[in-house]
Design brief:
Blueprint: H1 11-27, H2 31-44, H3 50-62, H4 69-84, H5 88-105, H6 118-128, H7 134-149, H8 163-177, H9 183-193, H10 201-221, H11 225-228, H12 231-246, H13 254-273
């Protein structure tokens, strides 16, 4: 007998849908909706919270690939155990609070958000339940283990932002800038969206290197003939350099991220497009 899946109480689905919501809001430059979705993630998935611990159980199963069957089965056993050791009542209350906040601060149709790996998340959710027959449990667990033993598709973009989200970003970015989103812009976006998970540590590390690189490129840009011979362009390039320089001691925020994204685009226009 097939168990009805309640996506509103699928912790990983709601998390992935919120990440998607943040991404779309960034693309549409909808700062209000972006901050609303991000605040929900920070509030309900704070490290140590019931939903955060539950999410880690899911992620250990759908974010791991190219593992041996033995290791995959061990991870599955540990994930099931960790999930069942959680305070069931506390987790239910936390999920209810999240559902209520989403309905109020976003809207009920949020739960219709398309998440590419929804089928896998639904399968994991059933595995974590105690309502499966032994036969169905073995069938679903075998599917998850098979997914974990598959080779991941090589990509220079970290996996926490899925391909559908990236493709959506590319389409909207093309409409606005008539340009393909570059790999370093994809990486920056990914680090920004997932920064709440590690208190922004990976984002800060990436920005430290990227800002240093862009400063060097802006210095080189001043020697480009078209810029060197145009005082106005040279002045604007200098202002970009100074803006980047000011980020050395600045708190990482959306203004910093957007400025770096635009500077990455400017770099391409100067050195690749010749415009």
């Amino acid at each position: 007998m097939k168990i009805k899946h309640n996506k509103k109480r699928n912790t990983a689905f709601v998390f992935e849908a919120l990440v998607h919501e943040i991404t779309v809001a960034i693309l549409k430059e909808d700062e209000t909706r972006q901050k609303t979705a991000l605040s929900l993630v920070k509030k309900h998935f704070a490290p140590g919270s019931p939903l955060y611990r539950h999410l880690q159980c899911y992620r250990s199963l759908y974010e791991n690939q190219n593992l041996s069957k033995e290791i995959s089965e061990k991870i599955l056993r540990e994930a099931k155990l960790a999930s069942r050791l959680l305070d069931t009542e506390g987790l239910f209350v936390s999920q209810s609070d999240l559902i209520a906040d989403v309905n109020i601060e976003l809207e009920p149709k949020f739960f219709n958000t398309f998440v590419p790996n929804y089928k896998t998340l639904a399968t994991i959710d059933q595995i974590f339940s105690d309502k499966l027959s032994p036969k169905n449990s073995i069938i679903l667990e075998t599917q998850i283990v098979e997914n974990m033993t598959k080779s991941a598709v090589p990509s220079s973009v970290p996996e926490s932002v899925d391909n559908v989200v990236i493709n959506s970003f590319v389409v909207k970015f093309n409409d606005k800038y008539n340009s393909q989103l570059m790999e370093n812009q994809k990486k920056l976006l990914n680090h920004y969206i997932s920064s709440f998970m590690d208190n922004g540590l990976s984002l800060k590390m990436f920005l430290n290197e990227e800002i240093g690189r862009l400063k060097s490129r802006m210095t080189e840009a001043l020697k480009v003939e078209e810029i060197e011979s145009d005082s106005e362009m040279a002045e604007k390039t200098n202002k970009v350099f100074q803006k980047l320089e000011s980020f050395t001691t600045a708190t990482v925020n959306e203004d910093v991220v957007l400025t770096v994204l635009r500077t990455q685009q400017l770099e391409q226009e100067i050195f690749e497009n010749g415009d």
